[in-house]
Amino acid sequence: MDEERDDLDLLAFRYVAGEMRPEEAGEFELRMAEDQAARDAMSQAVALAERLLEARPAQEPLVRTRPVGPPAAAVARRHALRNIARPLGWMTAGAAAALLMVSLTRAPDNPAIEPRPGSVLPEASRLRPSADAVVWSQLHASQNWATADLERWLEEPPELANNDARDLLGSAAVPSWVNATSTEQPK
Amino acid sequence: MFREQQLPLRQFLLGLLRNRAEADDVLQQVFLKLVENWPSMRLDTAKSWLFTVAYHETLALRRRRVRHDTALAELWARPAWISQSPPPADAEAVRREEIDTVRQALAELPETQREVVRRRVYENQKFADIAAELGCPLGTVLTRMRLALKALARALQE
C-alpha cells in the first residue's frame, strides 16, 4: 500500500514537473476524474514543489531552461485585447456602481426589504453577509497562495499541445450534477 | 469545509492549469457551487464532490481556452489590489514553518537523493539529463526522487 502511494506521489510530481509523455499525462488526468488519492497526490506534489522552491538555499539561483516571457506575438495580442477590455471593464464597473447606488437609495422604500410594523426580522439575516460574500472575501484575503516562482517553474501541461490527449480529456464526460443548482443532489 | 479544502483544491487546480489566475477563478466557481448546493450536500462526500467539480470546471476551461485562448487571457486578469492583498497572518506563519521544515528535511536527505532534488527542482534539469550526468540509470534517479518525495512529504505532514 505504501509502495503504491509512493508511486502515485512520484507520478504526480512527474506530471507537475512536466515530465510525462503526452499520452501518460492524459491517462493521469483521466485517473484524476475519479481517483481521490490521485487528486490528493497532485495537491501534495504542488505544495511540495512550492515549499521546495521557497526553501531554496540562497546560493541556488533558479535556473531556467526555457524562455520566461511570453512570445512577442502573444504580448502584442494581449495588448490588443487589453485595449478592448479596458473600456469594457470601466463600463462594467460603472454599471455596477450605478446599480449599487440605485439599490441603496431605493431600499428604504421597498416594502419587501423594510420590516413591517410589529414584525421582527432575525438579526442574523440582517447583519450576516451572505455565504457567497464570505467565500469571496476569504478567497480575496489569501490571494498570494502560490509563489510566482512556482508558477514559473511549472511548465505548460504537455498534453495540451497534443490532439490525442485532448481527445482523451474530451472523453471525460461532465456529469450533469456538476452544473447542478441547489435542487439537485450531488452523487 | 472551505478552510479545510481551499488550499489542497488550489494546489490541485494549479497543477492542472499552471496558472494562478485561472486556478483562482475556477476555485471561486467551485466554492460558489458548493454554497449553492450546500443544503443538499452530504458531508461524507463533500471533499470528493469539490474535487470532481474542480476537475470538470478545469476541463471546461481548457476547452474554452483551446478555442478562445487569446480572448480568455484577458478575462482572467485580476485587478492589482486583489493580488496585492496580504495573506492572513496565521497562513503566513504556517507557510514559514513549512519552509523551515522542508529546508531541514532536505538537509537530512542522503546526499544522492538531495542531489537529484537539487538538480530537478533548482536547476530544472530533466530526470533523463540528471541520469546521464550522474552516469546512472533513469530508474535509479526516479527511485531516489521517489524516496526523497516520501521523506519530504512525511516531514511536511508531521
Q: Can you put this structure into words, describing what you see?
A:
The complex is a heterodimer of chains A (187) and B (158). Chain A is an all-alpha fold. Among the domains of chain A are: 1-66 and 155-173, no CATH class; 70-110. In chain A, 59% of the residues lie in helices and 0% in strands. Chain A is built from eight helices and no strands. Chain A is globular, with a radius of gyration of 24 Å. Mean pLDDT of chain A is 63; it is low at 65-73, 107-129, 140-145, 156-172 and 181-187. With 158 residues, chain B is mainly α. The longest helix of chain B is centred in the middle third of the chain and has 30 residues, at 46-75. Chain B is globular. Chain B has helices at 2-17, 20-37, 46-75, 80-83, 89-108, 111-122, 127-134, 138-157. Helix content of chain B is 81%, strand content 0%. In chain B, helix 2 packs across helix 3 (46-75) and helix 6 crosses helix 8.
Question: What's the topology here?
Answer:
The complex is a heterodimer of chains A (187) and B (158).
Chain A: H1 2-16, H2 22-32, H3 36-54, H4 72-106, H5 123-127, H6 131-141, H7 148-153, H8 163-170
Chain B: H1 2-17, H2 20-37, H3 46-75, H4 80-83, H5 89-108, H6 111-122, H7 127-134, H8 138-157
Helix pairs in contact in B: 1-2, 1-3, 2-3, 5-8, 6-8, 7-8
Tell me what portion of residues of chain B adopts beta-strand conformation.
under 5%
The 3D shape of chain B can be described as globular
Q: Structural class of chain B, please?
A: mainly alpha
Average residue pLDDT of chain B? 84
How many beta-strand segments of chain B? Answer: 0
Q: Could you report the average pLDDT of chain A, rounded to the nearest whole number?
A: 63
Structural class call of chain A reads: mainly alpha
Content of β-strand of chain A = under 5%
Order of helix and strand elements from N to C terminus of chain B: HHHHHHHH
Question: Helical percent range of chain B?
Answer: over 70%
Total beta-strand segments of chain A:
0
